[in-house]
Write a structure and sequence with these properties.
The complex is a heterodimer.
Chain A: H1 3-19, H2 21-49, H3 55-79, H4 81-84, H5 87-94, H6 98-102, H7 108-146, H8 154-181, H9 185-193, H10 197-207, H11 214-238, H12 241-247
Chain B: E1 2-11, E2 14-24, E3 29-33, H1 40-47, E4 55-60, E5 63-64, H2 68-77, E6 78-81, H3 93-103, H4 108-121, H5 137-149, E7 155-159, H6 167-182, E8 186-191, H7 194-200, E9 203-208, E10 210-215, H8 217-224, E11 228-233, H9 238-245, E12 250-256, E13 259-264, H10 267-280, E14 285-291, H11 295-306
Parallel strand pairs in B: 3-8, 3-9, 6-7, 7-8
Antiparallel strand pairs in B: 1-2, 1-4, 4-5, 9-10, 11-13, 11-14, 12-13
Classes of the chains: A mainly alpha, B alpha/beta.
């Protein structure tokens, strides 16, 4: 597989994404809500409790809040690809550009990698932007209230640096597979959205009180690595040029 | 340059292309005619390695469509203009061509030169940075042709290049294909347009799932009727009729409205003698024409014969 070929596809897709203002605004909206507004809301809520808690209780609550904000970042990275990756092949089908693209001397793997990177890069970029802003909000608040920086802690680092990209890869791969097999953008987004369900499940666990420990982060990491590798091979197996060309109208 | 032997493609129980064997020479413009669903696009897709074959053989140059490595090589030496232009509407004409030039592995300098040459040739250079969405259908078609040529392919597959274009745009595209013909490129042209096929193609294959016939447009036109000469007269008298019937070179004579329809083997050689005989018999010749069948006549006849009863 020639990476430079994939990168040509990625650059083209990124140019197309940049020109699509609806995709651009969709990319910005979710991180703005989950990555910035929610931590800010939690901060206000904790401020109200400040007088009733001891310092150690307050520190524990703040740490839990920071870990919850990290899981929201994971969710963002898993949800965003349904906007871009679900469009990857469906978009080519809609523009009827798939036939000339498939006629070029490019392999299936190179095309899939190029399309996946084009979805992965902006999604992860926007998520990390949200992470940076969210961390800044939390650190400014914790420094003012507690005289210390609470972000990043080990869980936060694992969640943002390792789990977030892995969750993003999982979502991108699943959405690219769906996109190569359906003809309609709405169907692609709805089916692609299903992949987020396990990650939403993780969030529900958080809400009902599962402990967000480093051990949990490591277990999630291992599960995601296995799922990512499996989906990569599955995407190569399910990508059928002939089927794509002959079954879409 | 293009060889197929019993090339066959089935989709489930549906036979799309049935045992097609043909040879297209290097530098030849080969026209593929046939009704909708005849298998023309499927044949092109098989030859471009876009879809597989059910059985038979197909080669482009030294490469077989069967082998995956050969398929990558085939895709490098062929250019494809699909039925739908399939350009990226939000990108500029230049960016579209640049993207494909890179995928076809054209070196930077050559790619820039090719884009400039093609866009200038097609009269789009001044608007190269405009997004494709702002162009007319005809201009988009021209950009798509430029895309198919960006890597200077040895073989060019054109699938309905003038379909859905207005007459002016269609003429521009046809003129461009004629320019390519002068460059001695091998061109495989799928078309419904019989006039276009006649004007552009060295040979024509008529396909109705099976390959019905392959020949030059002229030979196909002659295949329907033997050559006939029509002599238009002021009036047809008995003396004129007797004079014509008395000629050995005239195999049969039919009389129309003040005209004689003559079956003559070699009109170029024998028409002067016929005219002389008519004039000597007192006939007044207004003009002499040739009765020819059109490619449309031949096409419709062959397609009808090929259709299941």
């Amino acid at each position: 597989m020639r990476f430079w070929k994939s990168w040509i596809v990625t650059q083209k897709d990124l140019s197309v994404i940049r020109k699509n203002k609806y995709v651009f605004y969709s990319l910005i909206a979710l991180p703005a809500i989950l990555g910035i507004v929610l931590p800010a809301t939690f901060v206000f809520a904790l401020n109200a409790e400040l007088t009733t808690l001891t310092r150690s209780q307050f520190l524990a609550a703040a740490t839990q809040l920071i870990n919850i904000s990290a899981t929201y970042l994971i969710t963002i990275s898993a949800v965003l690809p349904s906007i871009i990756a679900s469009y990857s092949f469906v978009g080519e089908k809609i523009e009827k550009s798939l036939e000339p693209l498939l006629a070029t001397p490019t392999t299936d793997g190179e095309l899939l990698l190029g399309k996946s990177l084009a979805a992965f890069i902006p999604c992860l970029g926007v998520t990390y932007l949200a992470a940076a802003i969210s961390a800044a909000i939390l650190d400014v608040w914790s420094y003012i209230r507690l005289g210390t920086f609470l972000v990043p802690n080990l869980f936060w680092i694992l969640a943002v640096a390792v789990i977030t990209p892995l969750a993003c890869v999982l979502s991108v791969e699943a959405n690219v597979i769906v996109s190569s097999r359906v003809n309609d953008i709405r169907a692609a987004q709805q089916l692609g959205g299903l992949v987020v369900l396990p990650i939403i499940g993780l969030l529900i666990l958080v809400v009902v009180g599962a402990e967000l420990s480093v051990l949990l982060a490591i277990l999630v990491t291992i599960s995601l690595v296995v799922a990512d590798v499996t989906l990569f091979y599955l995407s190569k197996e399910t990508f059928q040029r002939e089927e794509i060309l002959t079954k879409w109208k | 340059m293009i060889d197929t032997e019993n090339l066959t493609r089935k989709f489930g129980d549906l036979m799309a292309v049935d045992n097609v064997s043909l040879h297209v020479n290097e530098g030849e413009v080969f026209g593929f005619l046939g009704p909708n669903g005849a298998g023309k696009t499927t044949t092109i897709r098989m030859l471009c390695c876009l879809i597989g074959k059910t059985s038979g053989q197909a080669r482009i140059g030294d490469f077989s469509v069967e082998n995956e490595q050969d398929c990558l090589a085939i895709r490098k030496i062929v250019g494809l203009l699909p039925e739908n232009v399939g350009l990226y509407e939000s990108l500029s004409a230049y960016r579209n061509l640049d993207f494909y030039g890179k995928l076809y592995e054209v070196p930077d300098q050559a790619r820039q030169e090719n884009i400039e040459r093609l866009l200038k040739l097609l009269g789009i250079w001044e608007r190269r940075e405009d997004s494709v969405a702002t162009f007319s259908k005809g201009t988009k078609q021209k950009i798509a042709i430029a895309r198919a040529l960006i890597h200077d392919p040895l073989v060019l597959f054109l699938d309905e290049p003038t379909a859905n274009l207005d007459p002016e745009a269609a003429k521009t595209v046809r003129d461009f294909i004629l320019e390519l013909k002068k460059e001695k490129r091998t061109i495989f042209l799928n078309t419904h347009n019989l006039d276009e096929a006649e004007r552009l193609c060295d040979r024509i294959g008529i396909l109705k799932t099976k390959l019905v016939v392959v020949d030059s447009p002229k030979n196909l036109e002659r295949s329907l009727y033997s050559r006939k000469t029509i002599v238009h007269l002021e009036s047809v008298s008995d003396q004129v009729l007797a004079a014509v019937k008395g000629l050995d070179t005239v195999k049969s004579v039919k009389i129309g409205d003040n005209k004689l329809i003559l079956d003559i083997d070699n009109p170029e050689r024998d028409n002067p003698e016929v005219v002389r005989a008519i004039v000597e018999a007192g006939g007044s010749v207004q003009y002499v024409t040739e009765l020819r069948s059109t490619l449309e006549d031949v096409y419709l006849k062959l397609i009808k014969e090929a259709s299941p009863q």
